[in-house]
Amino acid sequence: MPNVIRPDSYSVNLLLAFFWAGLVTVLLKTAPITLLKENSIPAIARRWLDYVPVAVMAALVGPDIFIYDGKLDFGWRNLFLMVSAPTIVVAWFSKNYFITIAFGLALIIGARYMGWAA
Amino acid sequence: MNESIYAWLEGFKRALPICLGYLPVGFAFGVLATKNGIPPALAVAMSCVQFSGSGQFVFASLWGNGAGYAATAIAVGIVNLRYLLMSAAEAPWMNGVNRVKRFFLGWGVTDESFVSHAAALKNGWRLNTVTMFVCNQTTQLAWVGGSAIGAFCGALVDDVRPLGLDYAITAMFIALLIPQCGSRRHLIVAIFTAALSIALKCSGLGQWNIALAAIAGATLGLCLSRIREEDAKRDPA
Description:
- The complex is a heterodimer.
- By secondary structure, chain A is mainly alpha-helical.
- Helices cover 71% and strands 3% of the residues of chain A.
């Protein structure tokens, strides 16, 4: 693996990919927050944006829990699902951030220690 | 307690579970990137500049499969479209914050930090940009550090699963999401969005599922809150 980048076409293309991917990502992240002003956003859009955090969380966590090894899995073989069910109960009743995370991690570590597949 | 010390501590507290997840995932990225022919220094630079988990993984695997720079950059853009949504959702928080700060807060947006800040706001946290910066940049340090270890000495660690670290971020999402589901509207939005996101991912739209499902879910939430208002108007009980 060359640590020093030589100006061959492979490296030039890689640097171009690095540059464009970085630029696109930074623009996507910074443009709305920099350009939109609080009072320039219509009330209905602001109401819509209020739901974005919950929607983003759910969109991220759903596949994390139910897709295991690249497949939809509702069964006991899905370790993340089996651990998440009690973790959700703990989150609901404790409403405590760190207790919930510690509980979930402890269950995962324990289950794997006991030899749960994957 | 001194207010600025409190703001820093709050930022570190928020960053801690995210770092637990970022270190091993960053490590995995570093290993994958070098395996796909990306020099270690460039992999680390990517973690500094992009600071986007899935975008970087897509970059590494597309590049490794011989995609050109345009295809790689476009795919990264598609995966990272969701940041547009999060950045827009943070905009209404930024009353009176100057553009330079906004720019850097936007640059620090990730799924995890966005969700943590949003949940804290819902729970009555008074927005503090110091806390946001401390949280975002501490997690970035973990991400860059993890990538560097993975890229430069990937052979040292072979499996993070016995430590449960591959579950840390999922546990964090559960800890943040579930307490938000107290109202029926939010619960419906959460279940609908999670199901849609899974369905989209399973039908091969794995690069689009988060952005599309989140847009649909937020729209459903808006509709539900409008229906409720109409009901209240018709039947002022």
